[in-house]
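Hey team,

Filing this mostly as a record. A colleague (T.K.) asked me to run one chain through the structure pipeline before their review meeting, and I want the input and output archived in the tracker in case anyone asks later how it was produced. No errors, nothing strange. Just documentation.

Input sequence:
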Amino acid sequence: MPRLRRSATARPTRVLAAAFLLSVGLGGCYTPAQQLVNADAESYAILEKRRAELDAKGGFTIQPPPDSLRQRMLAGEQPGKLGLVRVLEVAAENSRDYQRRKEDLYLAALDLTLERFAFAAQRSGQLSALLNGTGDEAQTASAGGGFAVRRLLGTGAALIGDVGLSLARNLSRGDGWDVASDMGITVTQPLLRGFGRRIVLEPLTQAERNVVYAARTFERFRRTFGVDVTQRYLRILQQALQLKNEEENLANLEQVSKRNEALSKAGRLSEVQLAQAQQDELRSQARVIDQRQRLQTSLDNFKLFLGLPISAPLELDVSEVERLDSGQGLQVNEELATSFALDQRLDFLTVLDQVADAERKVPIAANRLLAGVDVSSSINASSEPGKPFEYDSDDLNWDLGLDVNLPIDLISQRNAYRETLITLERAKRAEVELADSIRVALRDELRQATALLETLRIQANAVTLAERRIESTRLNQQAGRAETRDILEAQEALRQANNALISARVDYHLARLNLWRDMELLRVDENGVRPDPELLAARASELPPSDEPSTDSAAPAPEESKQ
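Output structure:
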């Protein structure tokens, strides 16, 4: 193959051509790793803004933590007692559903970056080179490059500008390089179908709103997920405390049995009363064994839910139950709860906005039934031969055109228009249905909170009475005025009252959580899942005074009694 001869006169031209081609070919090019960084930077910036509007706390990333608690426990680390806040963190970092929800939010932001790009200056470049010949002899060599910019305007106009550079040489004759360039600008403007800012920007508008909806959905999920984790956690603590109560009851029954056995041997107590105490002791032992087994099963299921090693020991902080009722009361009545929920519920706000989306799409669908009338204009120019950067205005080529697409047989567009009207009516019905569902749920939860608060007070009094009964029965037994059955019945009443008090305490707290969740009063932050009383107070100040009785959804409960 012959070598290409160099020409001193062609060198500046080749340098300019090479610089042009490199700038086109390499400008704006990124490696796959850099593309990922850019995608994350754009998407996370969008999400940071949207989550801040929802007062969402904590950072956001779809990357799993490199040192999760599961990995550390598999390596032999003992996490110690896990409080509720830490459990919430562990559940979030290991939950597959939680990870999928984060990815859904990220993908909504990623889709938005594409829609924004549609209205940005879109650059494209192309490089090419060709060497051809016959047999073992090269005859011609050519190279070229082009660079184009496309921009979509708000009116629907599409603006395209391009510039190209080409080089050619006949190798068989030894000629120098023939260099030429060309440039052009084309503008296309729709006049009927596809015209107007509202029509053109609809994909971008919807993508922006979809990110808002996704952010609301994720934040709503975080709060619901927090309630779910809290419920699982507290139910296990409830079992642990009830096991402790059963063990204390067994210890008391063992003392009764030992005392009765000693009295029986001394001839001061009948065999019947001795057998009664022993039978209650055996029943208590069976309950302890059963309670331990159920607690271990619950712990294993909880470790599975958290994504922790099943065989690793897990210790929870039972003192969390004692802190359940340390908060200040939130006075809530039906009017305030409903008004607050309809103003704050993230899913309801999305349904309201989806009605607006459906309304916005009706005229857009109607626009697609119009005739397509487009005006286009273009200007093109080619350089002087051998002078790639010199153009003669007399050699400019231009054209002005009109394209009309008559609205004939637009069945697809017609059906789409009818569907938008149906979608609008459905969206309106969904708004009414969700509003009514919220009202019904809040009324029921308010009644439950009121009933459970009263149950909690009743059970606290029941424990106090059972403790007094125990003491009175023991004194009577010492004075010979009570039998074994009396002390056993009193002990059983105390056991049941303590278990019922633990259940009532947890039930009441979970009822409050459900109420706060459905009011959208819950917040998830570094302190766990908690209500925001300031938001409720601000809303209450906007409402006129009401004679409707309030529910103290966070009234302090009596301290749990000890045996």
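Quick notes for T.K.: Residues 411-478 form the longest helix (68 residues). Confidence is low (pLDDT under 50) at residues 1-21, 553-563.
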